[in-house]
Amino acid sequence: MIAAAELPAPAADAVPGRRRFIALLATPATLAGGLIVALVVICALFAPWLAPHDPNAQNLAEAAKPPAWLGGSTAYLLGTDHLGRDILSRTIWGARVAAIVGFSVVLIGCSIGVSLGMIAGYVGGLLDDLIARVADVQLAFPFILLAIAVVGVLGPSLWTVILTLGVTSWVQYVRIVRAETLSLRDRDFVQAAIAGGASRARILMRHILPNIASPITVLATFEVARTVILESALSYLGLGVPATVPTWGTMLADGRQYLDTAWWMGTFPGLAVSLTVLGINLFGDGLRDALDPRSR
Fold first, then answer.
1. Domains by residue range for the chain, with CATH
2. N or C: which terminus of the chain has fewer CB atoms within 10 Å of its end residue's CB?
3. Residue 110 and residue 250: Cα distance in Å, rounded?
4. Which phi and psi angles does 251 have, rounded to 5°?
5. What is the pLDDT of residue 142?
């Protein structure tokens, strides 16, 4: 009886609600963002088969060749860099690093932030104050400078970047999840679960978490875009993954001194970063409108 009263869901609204959700996601901007994100994911998953060349293969005889439509070779559609490496292949492989870092960092940061936010909002008291103060201390430090300091000490590697960005990105989730949990803990369905003898863990996982999943999903989507920019910034500064791993940030760093003579070296990885972030933000806006009625 308690379970039936805890989460009322009128069956009559289920189908119309699903239709409204699909209609909101079917807007042109959201579809365009979804297609861009899908393209990046496909490149990340199938990079070894989609890339026409080895991304690290050097051919000095073909160095700084322009794109094919500007008189370059059709073997190098987007041209080559100063070492004769194929820009298209390196851009495709760069999508793999961006996707791995973006989704891994969000998974780590979301797991830590959501757990601490629910605990702080539901338990309250001294534990809530402690978590809030730790979050305030971390917010006092510029995020990118903190990441640079940690990566600089531990050394550049893919897992160092993921762990550093993941462990330092939990604050964004804590603030939102804590506020949502505070607004839910005195609701009737939570009180009914408490009266039924449910444990705190069950209440948080079974009753609180499903009701705050929408804002968490939207925030996580935007955090992927933010992480892609941060990873590119660290790679640009030489503090990301090793130089042997092609990334968009490393390509930007390599091409910045050739913008006057070989603009394609820095332009195409820059476009890859910009389009990826734009696609994620467009998709995130549509997802927010579909999941949060207050934003419509």
1. 13-295 (1.10.3720.10)
2. N
3. 27
4. -65, -40
5. 76
Residue 147 and residue 226 in contact, taking contact as beta carbons nearer than 8 Å: no
Which one-letter amino acid corresponds to residue 127?
L
Structure tokens at 22: 């699909």
pLDDT given at position 2: 43
Place of tokens 């964004």: 172
Give the number of residues written for the chain: 296
Task: Give the distance, in angstroms, between the CA of residue 259 and the centroid of all CA atoms in the same chain.
Answer: 29
* Spatial contact of 156 and 97, defined as CB atoms under 8 Å apart: no
State the 10-residue block means of pLDDT for the chain, 296 residues long.
Answer: 43 51 70 92 94 91 90 90 93 94 93 92 88 85 76 80 87 90 86 83 87 89 92 86 88 89 92 95 84 57
The two three-digit tokens of residue 223, written as one number: 């955090």
Report the alpha-carbon distance of residue 44 to residue 191 in Å, rounded. Answer: 46
Which residue's entry shows tokens 């006092």? 140
User: 3-state DSSP call for residue 236?
Assistant: helix
